[in-house]
Design brief:
7 helices; 49% helix; alpha+beta; 8 strands
């Protein structure tokens, strides 16, 4: 079943200002409506041309000007359709970030850059994730939220990159769990030294993320306050599904 949302000039949707106005043009219109057709439960086909108009964050990364221009634009054709699942946010975490919103055009563009493409020399998945963070900033996603979203996509990129990077992530996850547990127990016992060591640990173990050190640091700092509501949401979701 295909459900197509293709508003024409007379459609009431044109009266609303898109949240990506001044950051993205859609079919030549600043902040225009994005046309998608739903192909299955979570996959959409793009029917609009999207162009990003802000900084990429990659201007100093030794990437050719032609590549920097090409990554700004998505233009589906019959020979090359573009599919997206929008933002891949697990159900229990959607209280924090939705699958769609002001970030919609940014995540659609990011989708097309993952995995890294041979026809875009110099564009690695690390750079694609960085580019997403700059698009989120330009469209107005607040600092902490966009950095956490960046950490999430960076984690995914590292997980699928290689067995070695997966192993480093597992070590990092174990260290994060140990660190949070140590902090709670130290706080209970009033042990200031152990509390300080637990707080310092994320800055050390974030080096396991390599060039995405900042993502590892943000993920470790955000985890203690993101996990409790997410776990509660997951419990409710499982009860509902049951």
């Amino acid at each position: 079943m295909s459900m197509t949302a293709t508003p024409d000039a007379a459609s009431p949707i044109r009266r609303f200002k898109a949240p990506w106005t001044d950051s993205f043009t859609v079919d030549g219109v600043d902040g225009g409506a994005i046309a998608l057709s739903q192909r299955d439960r979570s996959t959409f086909e793009l029917h609009s041309d999207i162009r990003y108009n802000g900084p990429t964050g990659l201007e100093d990364k030794n990437i050719g000007a032609d590549v920097l221009e090409r990554i700004r634009v998505l233009a589906p054709t019959k020979k090359r359709p573009i599919y997206t699942d929008l933002a891949s946010v697990p159900g229990p975490a959607r209280w924090f970030a939705g699958t769609y919103g002001e970030h919609t055009p940014a995540v659609i563009i990011h989708d097309e850059l993952i995995p890294a493409r041979d026809d875009l020399p110099g564009m690695s998945e690390v750079y694609a994730d960085r580019y997403l963070r700059f698009m989120l900033q330009h469209v107005g996603v607040r600092f902490l939220k966009r950095w956490i979203m960046w950490s999430a996509v960076a984690l995914r990129s590292r997980w699928v990159a290689s067995a070695w990077k997966r192993a480093l992530l597992v070590i990092w996850l174990l260290a994060a769990v140990v660190g949070m547990t140590t902090f709670v127990l130290a706080a209970r016992d009033g042990d200031i030294a152990r509390m300080a060591a637990a707080l310092a640990a994320p800055a050390i173990f974030a080096f396991l993320w390599g060039k995405q050190y900042g993502a590892g640091l943000v993920a470790a700092v955000a985890a203690p306050w993101l996990l409790p509501p997410t776990v509660l949401s997951m419990a409710g979701y499982l009860i509902y599904r049951g």
